[in-house]
Amino acid sequence: MKNKLFKYTLRLGDNALILGHRLSENCSKGPYLEEDISITNTALDLLGQAEAFYKYAAQVEDAGRTEDDLAYKRPENEFYNLQLTEQPNGNFAHIQVRQFFIDAFNYYLFSQLKESKDPTLAAIAAKSLKEVTYHLRRSSEWMIRLGKGTPESNQKTQQALEDLWQFTHEMFVADEVDETLLKEGIAADLHKLKEHWDAKVNEILEQANLQRPEDGYHATGSKKGYHTEYLGYILAEMQYLPRAYPDAKW
Amino acid sequence: MKKNTEQLELEFQEKIDNEIKIEPKDWMPDAYRKNLIRQISQHAHSEVIGMQPEGNWITRAPSLRAKKILLAKIQDEGGHGLYLYSAAETLGVSRDTFLQWLHQGKAKYSSIFNYPTLNWADMGAIGWLVDGAAIVNQVSLQKTSYGPYSRAMVRICKEESFHQRQGYEIMTKMARGTKEQKQMAQDALNRFWWPALMMFGPHDSDSAHSSQSLKWKIKRESNDTLRQRFIDKTVPQAELIGLTVPDPDLELQPNGSYKTGEINWDEFWNVVKGNGPCNKQRLAHHKKAHDEGRWVREACLAFAEH
Predict the structure, then answer these.
(1) CA of B297: which chain A residue's CA is closest?
(2) CB contact under 8 A, B82 and A47
(3) Which residues in chain B have their CB less than 8 angstroms from residue A150's CB?
(4) pTM of the model
(5) Which A residues, 44 through 63, put their C-beta within 8 Å of a C-beta on chain B?
(6) Domains parsed from chain A with CATH numbers
C-alpha cells in the first residue's frame, strides 16, 4: 500500500517535472515577449508542483531520499511521466496542443484529487488546481485563437493535434496502482476523468474550427517506465551536474 | 519662431535643474528625445538578450530550487524588458521598430551578454557581478529626468537586488564547495570580472554621450564614478568567499578605495562593434525566435480582427 502511494505520487511529480522542463527549454524562444514570459510562468508552476509531489513521495517512501534525489538520481526506466509530457517542443502549435491536452487532464484530475482521502495529496491538488485552472483557460484560448486565426495557424494546429493524438490514450490507462488506490478513495477515477476530458476537448476543438483526430496507434507504457526516445536526452541534460559531481552540494 | 524654441529650451532646462520630471507629452528637444530612445531601447534590448546566456543553463540547473530561481530570474528580466519597451514607446517609436533596429544592428545591447556562460558558477557570476554592476547604474538612474524611465527603474531595482543576492549565494556555495566547484567559481570570476567593469562604458574622457546626458540628467553620475563604486563594493565580497580578483595591479588605497589595472579597451570596442564571442549567436537566436513566431503573431492579429 505504501509502495503504491509512493508510485502514484511519484507519477504526479514526474508529469509536472518533465512538462515543466520542456516548457523551460522554450525560454527566450517565444513568438513575442509577453508569451515568452507566460510560458516560463507555466513552467515555474509545474516545477513547484513537481517539488511538492516529490517531497511527499520521499516522505511516503521513507528511505532517506530527498525531492532532488528523486528528480536527479533516478534512471529513465524509473520515471513514470506520461509520454505526452516528454514530446519535443516542435513549433508553437505543438507546445500549445500538448499543453491543452495535459491542462484538461490535470484540471479534472486535481478536481477529483482535492477530495482524496489522503490529506497531503488533497492539499497539493487543491493548491495546484488554482494554477491549472488558469493554465487550461490559457491553452483553450490558444486553441481557439490559432484554430480561427489564419489558414496557416489552423493548418499547423491541426497538424499538431494529429502528431500528438496518439499520446493521449495512455492518460486514461489504469494499472493496479490506480485501481487499488481508487478503492481506498485516494486516487482519481480515470474512467470518469476520460468522460470529462473528451467533452472538454470536443467543446474547444469545435469552437476552434479544428477536427478531433481519428484514433490510430496508442502509445503506452509510461506507468511501467517505458518511454519514447526523447526522455533519455532530457534526463542526460537535466541530471548532468549532480551525476558528474556526486559529492557536490548546489 | 527661433526665439520660441530658445524659450522652450530654457524652460526645459529649468525644469531639469529643478528636478521636475519630463513627461511624454511635455515639450523636449529633439536631441533629448533621440538620446533617450537610444538609451532606453538599448537597456530594454539588454534585458531581453540577457535572457539567453542564463537560459543556456536552465535545463542543466543542478537542483529543483536552483532551476526555479533561475527561471524566475530570467522571467524577471523579460518583465524588465517589457517595462522598458513601454517606457521607450512613450517617445513615439513602436516595439516593432525597436526590434527591427536591433536585428539590423542599428540598436545595441550591453556587451556583457556577448560572452558565453560555460559552467554553472557563471549563473552566480552573472547575478553577482552583472546584476551587481547593473544595480549600481540603475539605482542612480532612478533619479533620471524622464518620468517613465525613472519609474521603470524604481520597479526594476527592487528585483535586481534580489538577483544580485541569489548570484552571490550561488557563488558562495561554489567557492565553499568541492575542489571542482571552487575551480568553477574562480573560472567564472576570471572570465566575467573585466567584462563587468566594461559594463559602465568608456572612461568619462572618451564617452561620446556623457556630458550632454549629465546636463539633461538622463544620466546622473559619470561612468567612472559608478564603476569605482562597483569595484569598491565587490572586491571585499570576492575576498570574503576566498576568490581572487583577476587583476595583479589591484591595490587598496589609504582612502579605502581600490585602484585597478587598465581595462582592455580594444576588447571593449571590438565587442561593441560586433566582434565578440557571441554577438552573432545572440542576434541570430533572437531573430530566429522572432521569425518563427511570425505566423503566431499574424494569427493573433487575424483573430482579433474577426
Answers:
(1) A31
(2) no
(3) 295, 298-299, 302
(4) 0.95
(5) 44, 47-48, 50-51, 54
(6) 2-244 (1.20.1260.10)
Averaged over A78-97, what is the pLDDT? Answer: 98
Distance (Å, whole) CA B45 – CA B85: 8
Q: What is the ipTM of this complex?
A: 0.96
pLDDT, tens only, B80-117? 999 999 999 999 999 999 999 999 999 999 999 999 99
Report in angstroms the alpha-carbon separations of B108 from A28, B280, B282: 18, 13, 12
Closest CA in chain B for residue A249: B177
Instruction: Answer for the pair B140, B220: CB distance below 8 angstroms, yes or no.
Output: yes
Q: Contact, B138 vs B154, CB < 8 A?
A: no
| Orientation of helix B179-198 relative to helix B223-240, angle to 10° | 170
The pLDDT assigned to B206 comes to 85
Best of B64, B98, B184 to disrupt the A interface (most A CBs within 10 Å) is: B64
- In this structure, how many other beta carbons lie within 10 angstroms of the beta carbon of residue B69? 21
Query: What pLDDT was estimated at residue B159?
Result: 86
CA separation for the pair B157, B134 (Å, rounded)? 9
Please tell me what DSSP assigns to residue B22: B
The CA distance from A58 to A6, in Å, is: 8
Is residue B107 a contact partner of residue B172, using CB atoms and an 8 Å limit?
no
Question: Is the confidence at residue B3, as pLDDT, over 70?
Answer: no
Residue A5 has pLDDT above 60, yes or no: yes
B272 has a chain A CB within 8 A of its CB: no
Contacts of A160 (CB under 8 A, 6+ apart): A90, A91, A93, A94, A96, A97, A98
CB burial of residue B23 (10 Å; 0-12, 13-18, 19+) = exposed
